[in-house]
Specification:
This protein has 367 residues and is mostly helical. It is 66% helix and 1% strand. The protein has 21 helices and 2 strands. The protein has a two-stranded parallel ribbon. Mean pLDDT is 90; it is low at 350-356 and 359-367.
Length: 367
């Protein structure tokens, strides 16, 4: 099969095999204990004690651990039917619970046991990596390139980092790229639905809805532009209201504020730490260069994929020192930009113009 004829499904299966192999190698090294991916921390007492009550001994990482431990808790009660039994051990319950789709899926809508949830968190992310690769391959084909460019999703360092700590970023990014692929394939209803689900996976993905809506508005698809913006924002907003009804109205704004600072403040506060770590310094400078290059290319581009993710540029600049300080976290924050930039850099010149959007309901890319 010629490389230009490779179908997106083939590329997605390659990503699935690679991700599965990676997970098996890690699990084999720790006696097949899936709690290694959840990233429970030695000093994160509330969540660690919660896990030990549910599971007994778990794999502990140094310090506070990482995001997976919160999604493990959320997966037991993703709809907050009993917040006093579960959400109370979260560091920022309202902020964490806003990201509901990943723990909802990994926890079997609240019906899985604790052991099942450990495996569910990993399996959902591995499948999401394959799904995101498929979506990116479809986008690449629509831009006139080979489906193999879909591997820009699978081998994205930010996506790999998300899998290592059972983060929600892989699911969110897969849905966002799926929305772009659906729109370019004429599936407008699916595009709006996937944008909404991306926002419910990670609220930052609402910038993709804004970017998509802006691009559609510019090319004259104004009714679809309004729908692509209003529906995801409304659903994420309704979930936010529900959270506050279940958890209280006091802490939501304060919790969210911990993740953001005025523009560039988080960057400047991270510089002393970067100087002590070459890896963090190189990565921090890389992210800043990526943001500048992405914005420059987008302003010269007419492609949907460019405008869909450009909102991550200003969003990243207001992230706190906590995100900018370590290479592991900063690459996760810009993971969608990395994949989108690869497509822009290599395929933008051959991409479809606005006049080549397919008619709704008549997809043009095969599987």
């Amino acid at each position: 099969m010629a490389i230009t004829r490779t179908k997106p499904l083939t590329v997605a299966l390659v990503a699935l095999v690679v991700a599965t192999g990676f997970a098996i190698k890690v699990l084999d090294g720790v006696g097949w204990d899936p709690s290694i991916f959840v990233a429970f921390g030695e000093t994160a007492t509330p969540t660690t004690e919660y896990a030990q009550e549910q599971l007994g001994e778990v794999y502990l990482r140094l310090g506070q651990g990482h995001d997976g431990k919160y999604f493990f808790v959320q997966a037991h009660d993703p709809l907050l039917l009993a917040p006093a039994d579960h959400a109370e051990v979260l560091d920022r319950p309202t902020y964490r619970s806003q990201r509901m789709l990943y723990p909802l899926l990994a926890g079997g809508f609240g019906f899985f046991s604790s052991t099942d949830i450990l495996w569910g968190l990993l399996i959902v992310n591995v499948l999401a990596l394959a799904a995101g690769t498929y979506a990116t391959a479809v986008v690449a084909r629509r831009m006139g390139g080979s489906a193999w460019w879909g591997l820009a999703f699978a081998f994205n360092i930010g996506a790999i980092s998300e899998i290592i700590v059972d983060g929600a970023g892989v699911v969110a990014a897969a849905l966002a790229f799926g929305a772009v692929a659906a729109l370019l394939s004429g599936e407008e209803g699916w595009a709006v639905a996937l944008l909404s689900l991306a926002g419910l996976s990670r609220e930052a993905m609402l910038v993709v809805a804004v970017g998509v809506a802006w691009w559609l508005w510019r090319v004259g698809r104004r009714r679809l532009a309004a729908t692509s913006f209003i529906v995801p924002c409304a659903l994420v907003g309704l979930w936010a209201v529900y959270l506050r009804l279940r958890l209280g109205w006091e802490s939501g704004a304060a919790e969210a504020g911990l993740a953001f600072e005025p523009p560039f403040v988080g960057v400047f506060r991270s510089i002393p730490g970067w100087l002590d770590s070459p890896m963090n310094l190189i990565t921090g400078l890389f992210v800043l260069l990526l943001l500048a290059a992405y914005l420059f290319r987008t302003l010269k581009s007419n492609t949907l994929v460019a405008w869909a993710f450009v909102g991550f540029v200003p969003l990243t600049l207001v992230l706190s020192e906590m995100v900018w300080r370590l290479y592991f976290d900063s690459t996760r924050a810009v993971a969608p930009l990395i994949t989108a930039f690869v497509l822009m850099a290599f395929l933008d010149k051959e991409s479809a113009t606005s006049s080549e959007l397919p008619v709704s309901g008549r997809p043009s890319i095969g599987v």
